[in-house]
Amino acid sequence: MGAPPGYRPSAWVHLLHQLPRADFQLRPVPSGFAPQEQEYQQALLLVVALAGLGLGLSLIFIAVYLIRFCCCRPPEPPGAKSLPPGGGCVTWSCIVALLVSCAGIGIGFYGNSETSDGVSQLSSALQHANHTLTAIDHLVLETVERLGEAVRTELTTLEEVLTQRTELVAATRGARRQAEAVAQQLQGLAFWRGVPLSPLQLAEEVSFVEEYRWLAYVLLLLLELLVCLFTLLGLAKQSKWLVIVMTVMSLLVLVLSWGSLGLEAATAVGLSDFCSSPDTYILNLTQEETGLGSDILNYYFLCNQAVSNPFQQRLTLSQRALANIHSQLQGLEREAVPQFPSAQKPLLSLEETMNVTEGNFHQLVALLHCRGLHKDYAAALRGLCEDALEGLLFLLLFSLLSAGALAAALCSLPRAWALFPPRNPSASCSGSHLSEPLLQARLEPVPRLSSFLGCWRRPH
After folding, report:
1. Using only C-alpha atoms, what is the Rg of the chain?
2. Closest alpha carbon to 357 in 393, 333, 321
3. pLDDT tens per residue across span 243-289
């Protein structure tokens, strides 16, 4: 089955759908969306495992780098007061890594907003579809009850009034049979009545999950932003304790970034498989959950010239029956009212009932057409497969930038705070101790500046 006219898979869907998939035994897995199959579940879990492998390699690289830095650096000569060569490079590389992480945070906020917009569009489409289905059930129930009341009261009263004229009684009974036939045909139009699947409940569940997903990403983004800002503050103030605390926090955010990267990658792959050909899976799932016939589901999900309206025969028979009732009531009004004035009141009530019934019937014809529900279906797919998938890819880029930048910062931060000058604990007790470092800083500005800019002065 092809995609519905209101939705076309995007280039990102095609690209992700064509990526190879494999199970835990590295055997190829078809890219068709089949979440109930074990091989397909293993393929998605393998994508998450790749992110875990990236986290492990990052931690090993950081550990090896820091061990080499701590154990293999040459001893400082006694009395050395200047920074070692390359100290400025270490600080600036750490600052650049943190700025890249801040740029990734901006991308993450945009991706989180796009994903939320797409899911909100999906939820709104489900709510609108539920409104349409509820309106159909309500109109059918109201019309059937109104016709049943007319048969029990007005038509019964009319038969009692016209007992002296057998031909008029026969016409009245014919109108009764037509009204009962219309009620019977209309009852078959409420196809969603008694179905256990509720679009409104599904929309509420989707909104509930999305609310917590959005909040979790906002907290992650704010946490990383605070880590970056306080780390930059610690570097500017040369505060060892603040930089050490932020180093530990950066390690935590690094783990969270790799974890979110795995979840986003697996979700994007699975969503691309679903969005490449959604009709088959949705039709089968809806038929399994609702028990509706394939003719009804094909009509509303596909909505093209090749699929006929499954309710067309019922609508045609109902329309003919309503026209026959109108003609019979008009004939009774011409023939019976002059001879039986008491028949005018039930006839006027019947005409009013028939006018309301015809109005409800025309609304049912419009609601039962596939355009409305299919438009909701296409809007739901666009929200999920365009906006939500695009936002998910931006979140994927955020996690990738965050993981890389934090790994670089974790390699640079210990070297940066190790180069901070030691603080004199007795500086606040004596004025001479306070003025001595300031005087020394005034007398020896050149070595500190040259050591800070040592990375640009080193010969190639």
Report:
1. 37
2. 321
3. 889 989 999 999 999 999 999 999 999 999 999 989 989 999 999 99
Which among 182, 183, 143, 179 has a CA at the least distance from the CA of 318? 182
- Quick one: residue 3, left, alpha or beta (phi over 0 = left, psi -120 to 50 = alpha)? beta
| Pairwise CA distance, residues 346 & 366, whole Å | 30
Residues 158/341, Cβ–Cβ less than 8 Å: no
| Over residues 16-34, mean pLDDT | 89
- Spell out the residues 6+ positions from residue 370 whose beta carbon is closer than 8 angstroms to its own: 299, 300, 303, 307, 309
pTM of the model: 0.83
pLDDT at 410 over 60: yes
What is the spatial distance between Cα 50 and Cα 456, in angstroms, rounded to a whole number?
Answer: 39
